[in-house]
Amino acid sequence: MSIIEGRSDNFQKEVLESSVPVLVDFNASWCPPCRALHPTLEAMAEDSDKYKIVTVDIDAEPALASNYEVSSIPCLIAFKDGKETDRRIGLQPRKRLEKMLGVK
Q: Fewer CB within 10 Å: N-end or C-end of the chain?
């Protein structure tokens, strides 16, 4: 599976109604830690069908960022059964991201 682009028009379906855990990465193209995190997220997305990785550009989707009270980026929020289960700010190692999703 590849990274899914999160937008206002697909967030409900891709994240809140997902049958598997979802890691949402709120980011921006101008953010160096966000860019540094992207290869890890790409690798995770390619390696598993047990969860989804969704990326939300806060500049393109400010309403989503506001709705989830994102004030610093990268902001990583784990969802399971439509509910937020964990949240981390900043560059995170893959093992921590997998733990957030409950897969390791």
A: C
Query: Cα 65–28–21 angle (5° rounding)?
Result: 60
Domains of the chain: 4-98 (3.40.30.10)
Catalytic-residue membership of 34: yes
Is residue 31 flagged as an active site residue? Answer: yes
Assess whether pLDDT exceeds 80 at residue 92: yes
What is the rounded distance in angstroms from the CA atom of residue 77 to the CA atom of residue 15? 11
Q: Residues 31, 60, 89, 103: which is the catalytic one? A: 31
Task: With CA atoms as reference, report the closest residue to 43 among 102, 2, 71.
Answer: 2
